[in-house]
Design a protein that fits this description.
This protein has five helices and ten strands, in the order E-E-H-E-H-H-H-E-H-E-E-E-E-E-E. It is of the alpha+beta class and 182 residues long. The N and C termini lie far apart (32 Å). The structure holds fe (ii) ion. The site of fe (ii) ion has 5 residues, from loops.
């Protein structure tokens, strides 16, 4: 279950409704889906075959299809980060730099944990630690960065509005002040 920290007043929130409301006010979507229907063999496995990835997508087919219709997403895949990922630390160095995308960043956490930090609308940084069952959508253009949690592993379903155009944009924007890692 997610935990949210507001850096401006150092407040930690763990009530799902309050997290969803506060993130909603920032244009983000937060929901919680039931991951218990997925067998532990697929949840704990961090070296997935293509067939196993397809099995995970099929298990959440109804939820993913509803989200596609809602947000105009056209594609979905499964992404895994763990100690078995080649060059994990190099990837994390990139992810921890502030950036945005030209489309929404949509992540449903099947297993593991991750920490998204988002530049809020009123100049506050919002840090969201997500875990199994948490769904987050970061709208296009919203500046954010990402890292893993202590378990250093995460398995997510991603949804895309345009899979050919997915890229991180690191350039600094005057309205957001100096970019981290710029
Ligand atoms: Fe991103």
């Amino acid at each position: 279950m997610a935990t949210m920290r507001l850096h401006t007043d150092n407040r930690t929130i763990d009530a799902p409704d309050e997290i969803a409301n506060l993130l909603g006010g920032e244009g983000l979507v937060y929901r919680h889906w039931d991951v218990s229907k997925l067998g532990e063999g697929l949840r704990d496995n961090y070296v997935l075959t293509e067939a196993e990835k397809a099995e995970i997508l099929a298990a959440f087919g109804a939820e993913v299809d509803a989200l596609k219709a809602e947000g105009g997403y056209v594609a979905a895949d499964v992404v895994v980060l763990s100690e078995q990922t080649p060059d994990l630390d190099t990837l994390l160095e990139k992810f921890k730099c502030e950036h945005h995308h030209s489309e929404d960043e949509v992540r449903f956490v099947v297993d593991g944990h991750g920490v998204f930090t988002v530049r809020g609308r009123r100049g506050r940084d919002i840090e969201l630690t997500v875990g199994p069952g948490d769904l987050i959508t970061v709208p296009a253009g919203t500046r954010h960065w990402f890292t893993l949690a202590e378990d250093r592993r995460i398995k997510c379903i991603r949804l895309f509005q345009d899979p050919t155009g997915w890229a991180a944009i690191y350039d600094e924007r005057p309205d957001h002040g100096p970019s981290r890692c710029a």
